[in-house]
Amino acid sequence: MTTSENTELAAPVQITAVATLAAISFAHFLNDMIQSLLAAIYPLLKDSFHLDFAQIGLITLAFQVTASLLQPVIGLYTDRWPKPYSLTCGMGITLVGLLLLSMAPTYAVILLGAVLVGLGSAIFHPESSRVARLASGGRYGVAQSVFQVGGNVGSAVGPLLAALIVVPFGQSSLAWFSVAALLGMILLFNVGTWYRHRIPEITAARSDAPLATSVAAIALPNRRIVFALVILTTLIFSKFVYLSSLTSYYTFYLIDRFDVSVQQSQVLLFVFLFAVAAGTVAGGFVGDRYGRKIVIWFSIFGTLPFTLALPYADFYWTVALSMIIGVILASAFSAIVVMGHTLVPTRIGLISGLFFGLAFGIGGLGAAALGILADHTSIAFVFKVCSFLPAVGLLTVFLPNVDGRRKDSTQVLTGTGPGRRRPQP
């Protein structure tokens, strides 16, 4: 019996561990802030190493594909053998990658540093997502949003810090952010200790595991669950390829079309990423209250009118539309993750690693492909092509309505449903 199965039993009746949830969210902030520095300094690296857009895309690919390939494997492994202190190790590997990037003399070393940062991310995300679920008290959407918003804010702050520190002081100033990585290692060690103490408590519930297994699992045929996971994966593709076009090339688009400075473009990237963070928070609360499917439907397909308008907007409307797109599009991911957990409640680590890994990998492949396309056409053309991606959100209609089923399962577990009795010890 896996840890995640017991988690499904304990979660509805436990109290939200606010301090742990806040800690893992802040650690996510530090982790993703460090990672976002890489994309934020692309203009600096392009000039210093005379890179073309395809080489810029390969840097993103080196980082994101490493995370993509390893996250599901790590998640599956920790479903069977939880590793609380792997969180600290992951942040340590990110620290080494950051230091390599700060002193990289060649393009090859830059790629190596990007790979190590990706490896640190692969270790961090599956277990930290599990910790967020353990600390949720049954409010899974809110917990995932709080966890994810830490990463979103970190991703937003990274470009701003790059504009204020890295651009004026050069590539070597990346090493100054090692302090943040060290702080993250200390914080995650404490989180790992909380997690380690939690494992015996969960294991003690194994006598009730058959009940948890029977009511927590969704009463759907396996092929229906697989089909739903394929739909969720396709939606992740649409969402993150479009986000990749903005996070990797938004600064170049603003510089090329509106002739803004590098620092101005990075500040505007911060504004967009901050909007993404706001959307992430909203999505978790709305999903818990009104259902995951509604959030996913509105978040992806509802973005389409704004993405279609963006390539034709003037400077001020470009900034405004990018903020609207960021808020709406970001609201889906926590709902997608929680729906995946609900469909496969016995493989929390695997689903977390798969979805986070897909987000990184698809973003990396998208960045590389879009970079090649930009070299052969233009950045403006890339934004026009990507504007149609949210139309994939129409596939949401094929997702099952699992929220009502989940509510019934929770009632059985807690003995609160109509006509239900709490199982006698």
Automatic annotation (TrEMBL):
In Gene Ontology terms, what is one molecular function of this protein? transmembrane transporter activity
Q: Which UniProt keywords apply?
A: Membrane, Transmembrane, Transmembrane helix
Leader sequence range is none
At the top level, the lineage of the source is Bacteria
Query: Has UniProt tagged this entry with the keyword Plastid?
Result: no
Does the keyword section mention Transmembrane? Answer: yes
Fetch the Pfam families from UniProt: MFS_1
| Major facilitator superfamily (MFS) profile domain mapped to chain residues | 20-405
Sequence intervals crossing the membrane: 55-77, 107-125, 146-169, 175-195, 225-247, 267-287, 294-313, 319-338, 350-373, 379-399
The entry's cellular-component GO terms read: plasma membrane
Name of the protein described by the UniProt record: MFS transporter, FSR family, fosmidomycin resistance protein
Q: Which organism is it from?
A: Bauldia litoralis
